[in-house]
C-alpha cells in the first residue's frame, strides 16, 4: 500500500482554527492496483462569541465544531483472485476450483462522514460537556454476488450502500478537588443506527456463531444494527 498525504492548518488568534487535507491511497488489494483514490477532509472549530457579548458567569468555554472526511476500507486479501482448493482422489492430491470467483474490478469501500459538535465548560471547567452528532454513508460496500443460477458460485462485488446516524454525549465533572485529593467522574452515552440504503443483490440471511447465534437480514431499507451504550466512570 502506498499513501500520499497533504494537510494545511490555519489559526486566527486561537479563536477560529480550520484544517484542510487530502490523502491518496494505492493498494495491490484493489481491482486496479495502479489507481490512486483521493480522500479529502476538513474541519472548523471556534470559540463562540456568546461569551464575549453575554456575561455568562457559570460558563467559561463554548466551542462549536464541524468536520467532514472521507476514507476507505481495504478489500479483503485475494478478492481479485480465484483460489484453488485441495482435494484427494484415490490417494492422489489434486486441486478443485473454489466456489468463490475473483473480481478483478473490485473497488474499495468508501465512507463519507460529516459531524457537528459542541464542547462546553462550566465553573472553570469543573464540569464539561461534549456532544456530537454524525452521519456516515458508505458506498461500494462489498457483498457476495451469485453468478450462477444455483448460487454455488459467488464473487465479491460492490453492491450495497450503508448509512450510520448517531450521537455521542459525554459529561465529566470534578466534584471534589483539594491539594491532596481529586475526584473525577464521567458519564458517556452513545447511540448508533445502521441502515442498508441499497442492496444490488437478492435479500439474504447472514449468520455467525459466537456465544450465541446471531442472524442479520441483508435487505434494502432494513435496519441492520441499533446500538445504545451508557458508561459511568467513577
UniProtKB/TrEMBL annotation:
Main localization category: membrane
The TonB-dependent receptor-like beta-barrel domain, residue ranges: 6-184
Domain of life: Eukaryota
Record's subcellular location: Cell outer membrane
KW Transport (keyword) present: yes
Keyword rRNA-binding: no
InterPro entries, A to Z: Beta-barrel_TonB, Beta-barrel_TonB_sf, TonB-dep_rcpt-like
Membrane topology: Multi-pass membrane protein
Pfam families, per database record: TonB_dep_Rec_b-barrel
Keywords in alphabetical order: Cell outer membrane, Membrane, TonB box, Transmembrane, Transport
Official protein name in the record: TonB-dependent receptor-like beta-barrel domain-containing protein
Amino acid at each position: 500500500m502506498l499513501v500520499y498525504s497533504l494537510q494545511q492548518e490555519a489559526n486566527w488568534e486561537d479563536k477560529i482554527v480550520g484544517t484542510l487535507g487530502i490523502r491518496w491511497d494505492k493498494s495491490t488489494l484493489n481491482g486496479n492496483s495502479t489507481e490512486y483514490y483521493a480522500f479529502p477532509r476538513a474541519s472548523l472549530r471556534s470559540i463562540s462569541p456568546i461569551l464575549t457579548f453575554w456575561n455568562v458567569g457559570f460558563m467559561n468555554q463554548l466551542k462549536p465544531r464541524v468536520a467532514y472526511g472521507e476514507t476507505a476500507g481495504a478489500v479483503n486479501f485475494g478478492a481479485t483472485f480465484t483460489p484453488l482448493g485441495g482435494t484427494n482422489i484415490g490417494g492422489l492430491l489434486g486441486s478443485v476450483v473454489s466456489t468463490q470467483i475473483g473480481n478483478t474490478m473490485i473497488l474499495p469501500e468508501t465512507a463519507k462522514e460529516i459531524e457537528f459538535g459542541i464542547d462546553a465548560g462550566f465553573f472553570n471547567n469543573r464540569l464539561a460537556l461534549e456532544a456530537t452528532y454524525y452521519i456516515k454513508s458508505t458506498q461500494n460496500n462489498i457483498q457476495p454476488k451469485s453468478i450462477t443460477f444455483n448460487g454455488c458460485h459467488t464473487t465479491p462485488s460492490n453492491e450495497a450502500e450503508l448509512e450510520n446516524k448517531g450521537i455521542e454525549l459525554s459529561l465529566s465533572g470534578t466534584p471534589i478537588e483539594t491539594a491532596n485529593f481529586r475526584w473525577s467522574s464521567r458519564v458517556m452515552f452513545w447511540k448508533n443506527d445502521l441502515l442498508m440504503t441499497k442492496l444490488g443483490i437478492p435479500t439474504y440471511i447472514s449468520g455467525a456463531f459466537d456465544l450465541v447465534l446471531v442472524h442479520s437480514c441483508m435487505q434494502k431499507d432494513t435496519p441492520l444494527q441499533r446500538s445504545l451504550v451508557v458508561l459511568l466512570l467513577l
